[in-house]
Write a structure and sequence with these properties.
single chain, 124 residues, alpha+beta, OB fold (Dihydrolipoamide Acetyltransferase, E2P), six-stranded antiparallel beta sheet, three-stranded antiparallel beta sheet, 9 strands, globular, Glycine cleavage system H protein, GCV_H_sub, lipoyl, Single_hybrid_motif, GCV_H/Fam206
Length: 124
C-alpha cells in the first residue's frame, strides 16, 4: 500500500498536498482499495467556500457511494477534469492523475495527519 511521506492525511482517508496556500486533494490508496472500482466522481463545489469536514462531493464505486470531506477550510478553485471521462484514474493513480480538487486554503492544516499517523490509523 502506497502512503507517501510527503503528503498529509485525514481520518476520512483524504490526502492533501500543500503548496503555499494551495492544497491538492484526493482519496488515499487505502480508500480507493476499500471502495473498489470507481465508476463516477461527482464534485460540483468549484468556486465554493467549504468548511473543514464538510462534504465537497461524492465518489461512486460499483457497490457503494461515499462522501468526500474537506480536509481543510477553503475555496475550491479547481476540479480534475480528467475524472469526468476516466474516474478509474482514482484507482490507478490516487496520488497523481487521480487527484480530485485544488483548494485555496483558509485554515485547518494543523489538524492533518502525517504519513506515520495515517499508517497507525489504518493499521499498516
Amino acid at each position: 500500500m502506497n502512503i507517501p511521506d510527503s503528503l498529509k492525511y485525514t481520518k476520512d482517508h483524504e490526502w492533501v498536498k500543500i503548496e503555499g496556500n494551495t492544497a491538492t486533494v484526493g482519496i488515499t490508496d487505502f480508500a480507493q482499495g476499500e471502495l473498489g472500482d470507481i465508476v463516477y466522481v461527482d464534485i460540483t463545489s468549484v468556486g465554493q467556500e467549504i468548511a473543514e469536514h464538510e462534504i465537497f462531493g461524492t465518489v461512486e464505486a460499483v457497490k457503494t457511494v461515499s462522501d468526500l470531506y474537506m480536509p481543510v477550510s477553503g475555496k475550491v478553485i479547481e476540479l480534475n477534469p480528467a475524472l469526468d471521462a476516466a474516474p478509474e484514474k482514482v484507482n490507478e493513480d490516487p496520488y497523481g492523475e487521480g487527484w480530485m480538487i485544488k483548494i485555496e486554503v483558509k485554515s485547518g492544516v494543523e489538524g492533518l495527519l502525517s504519513a506515520a499517523q495515517y499508517k497507525e490509523l489504518i493499521g499498516k
